[in-house]
Design a protein that fits this description.
About 35% of the residues lie in helices and about 25% in strands. The chain contains 9 helices and 13 strands. It has a 5-stranded mixed beta sheet with strand order 3-2-1-4-5, sandwiched between helices. Strands 8-7-6-9-10 form a 5-stranded mixed beta sheet. The chain has a 3-stranded antiparallel beta sheet with strand order 11-12-13, covered by helices on one side. The two termini are about 40 Å apart. The mean pLDDT is about 85.
Length: about 325
């Protein structure tokens, strides 16, 4: 039986999963909404990945997890590899684009930039406060304008005179957008202005002080928006590469890392039927009062974390 490798990227907005073979070919992939329930999302992801996967030919022998809920999901899936998003995205991108120098990534609620030299990530930055350069901002503005978020790119490309939208932060951008609507600006010009604002906000915040060098690869869910891609290309003055699987790059990267790692553990799709829950506990062993997160499978405690000393290990 041939070996396969599972990679899962659990973010605040979306949950992504891929299964690859030894040559990094994708055997199955899924992209679903997290909806504030990472445990439920991962169980649904596993169910969806199982359907097209050829279990007669392949056995998943290693599992990698990344994303904001990587610790929790890694415990549930019995992951052999748990890595941060920067490492996962860098590994995934450099595997398919070995000459990449700059990685732009915009997701639902966060964004990041990774600078690469000789195939190694040498610098990075992530957004901390402002959401004006994220997918959530685009989604809310699409709803305000009465269109589907998937249509934004086509509308933006039809514009010949993009409206200037304040890009300093979400509050200013939304206020300015409403003002421009009331002034009678054409919808496609406003949408093009929103795309330009997303790119400008990203470069002025996440990319501030960073030397962006071509080749540039753009990934994350927002990379599917042709209007934002065009805005980046105009601003940077170079071609921006968008991989067809760019929205899955974190999951791909951590799947590749699990393949390269030494740990092996056969993955069981039955995890989708298991009962997992979490409970918060306070250590109380000292004045720190560390918040301990306990993960249970049924009534059995399978993992806990959050303690800053050995006293917290006793909390159940």
């Amino acid at each position: 039986m041939e070996h396969a490798y599972l990679g899962v990227d659990v973010g605040s907005i979306s949950t992504k999963g891929v299964i690859i073979d030894k040559d990094n070919r994708i055997l199955a992939s899924q992209y679903i909404w997290t909806q504030g329930d990472p445990i439920g999302a991962v169980k649904e992801l596993v169910r969806l990945l199982e359907q097209p996967f050829d279990k007669e030919r392949y056995q998943i022998v290693a599992t990698g997890v990344t994303g904001s809920a990587r610790k929790l999901v890694g415990t549930i899936l019995g992951a052999t590899m748990v890595k941060n998003e920067i490492t996962a995205h860098a590994v995934g991108t450099t595997t398919f684009y070995p000459d990449v120098r700059t990685i732009l990534e915009i997701g639902g609620q966060d964004s990041k930039i990774i600078l690469v030299e000789n195939g190694v990530a040498v610098d990075y930055a992530m957004n901390t406060l402002c959401a004006a350069g994220t997918g959530a901002f685009l989604s809310s503005q699409a709803k305000r304008l009465g269109i589907e978020v998937e249509e934004i790119g086509d509308y933006a490309l039809r514009s010949t005179h993009p409206t200037q939208i304040a890009a300093r932060c979400t509050v200013f951008a939304e206020s300015d957008l409403v003002h421009k609507i009331q002034m009678g600006h054409p919808r496609e010009d406003i949408i093009a202005g929103v795309c330009n604002a997303v790119a400008a906000n990203y470069l002025n915040n996440v990319g501030k002080g960073k030397k962006i060098i071509s080749p540039v690869v753009f990934q994350g869910g927002v990379s599917k928006n042709k209007g934002v891609v065009a805005a980046f290309e105009r601003t940077l003055g170079c071609k921006v590469i968008v991989d067809p699987n760019g929205h899955l790059m974190g999951a791909l990267g951590v799947a590749i890392l699990s393949r390269k790692g030494s740990r092996r553990k056969n993955f069981d799709f039955a995890v989708e039927n298991m009962d997992f829950r979490t409970r918060e506990a306070s250590c109380g062993g000292c004045s720190n009062h560390c918040e301990i997160i306990c993960v249970y499978e049924g009534t059995n405690l399978i993992d806990s974390w959050g303690n800053r000393c050995e006293r917290g290990a006793k909390v159940r």
